Amino acid sequence: xxxxxxxxxxxxxxxxxxxxxxxxxxxxxxxxxxxxxxxxxxxxxxxxxxxxxxxxxxxxxxxxxxxxxxxxxxxxxxxxxxxxxxxxxxxxxxxxxxxxxxxxxxxxxxxxxxxxxxxxxxxxxxxxxxxxxxxxxxxxxxxxxxxxxxxxxxxxx
Length: 157
Prior knowledge:
Blueprint: E1 3-4, H1 6-12, E2 18-24, E3 28-34, E4 41-48, H2 52-66, E5 68-75, H3 85-100, E6 105-109, H4 113-123, H5 128-154
Parallel strand pairs: 1-6, 2-5, 5-6
Antiparallel strand pairs: 2-3, 3-4
Helix pairs in contact: 4-5
């Protein structure tokens, strides 16, 4: 499937399907899952990154098991809006995954998502170890929740 924008994704989503949010890091992929009403994003898990084919197979299994109808991928742009190495890597992952999957995919600007989540965890007095365990999946939930809020604003489900 192609990489779409949020408006096109809203038109493609099967009824009662979920969205899967991805926060792509160098070493991990944070995952978050929406409810079937597309109201709430919940942190799910953090996958250790490996070869693309192995990562894609793990995602395929989650997509099938959870009834995922669309994927939201965080796009880590530089503060000036330009692409750096992380954004280029995220774009490559999204292109490769979209080429092999029937599930529509949207890339969402995720500037400052990890910083916002880290700040929240610090405010909650989470230890450094605990922050390291949850920051990626919480960043995925932050990214996904932003997409869900925009979908509602667009008049999506």
